[in-house]
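Blinded run. Sample ID left blank on purpose so nobody reads anything into the name before looking at the predicted structure. Input follows.
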Amino acid sequence: MTLRRSGRKVIERYPELPASWAPYDIRFPLVAAQVASLVRDRMPHVTVEHIGSTAVPGCGGKGVIDVMVVCAPELLGRVKNLLAELGFHPQATRDPFPESRPMRVGALRHQGQLFRIHAHVLTSGAPEAGGLLAFRDRLRTDSALRASYEACKQAILAAGVADSVSYAEAKARFFQGVGAER
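Blinded prediction complete.
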């Protein structure tokens, strides 16, 4: 079954773009909620959470909406298939996440604008899932941490890092310094 809207898949092709700065957009949570609804309507036993800087009001970043889909281990294959039916694709960059903890990419058109999406799929009980939620919640409540995180990301971009994988690798040092997973 291929899910389509107006003759095309709901999730559009992910445009690979160089890493760049984007201010917070109040539409980020709306787009994340649409993605969550698309997944939960078809698989109500999974959890979908909006994570990353786009889930933190006022926090700037790359502007890519991260969602985390958490499922029972035995549903991992079904979740990957559902995401493919919606239009998500495996990463096309170097060093993709392993298929045991995949990330799928796509884009959703909302109010005439295309929003890029990373759908991280984790299995229930994975420590990373709790770490991602805890870090999101810390960013929401700790303005100093949020400012430090934004400064880190801006410094990475100012250093000329444009490749998304290199950007993520550079950001990893920040997470290690604050004791967060991401």
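Unblinding after everyone has recorded impressions. The radius of gyration is 16 Å.
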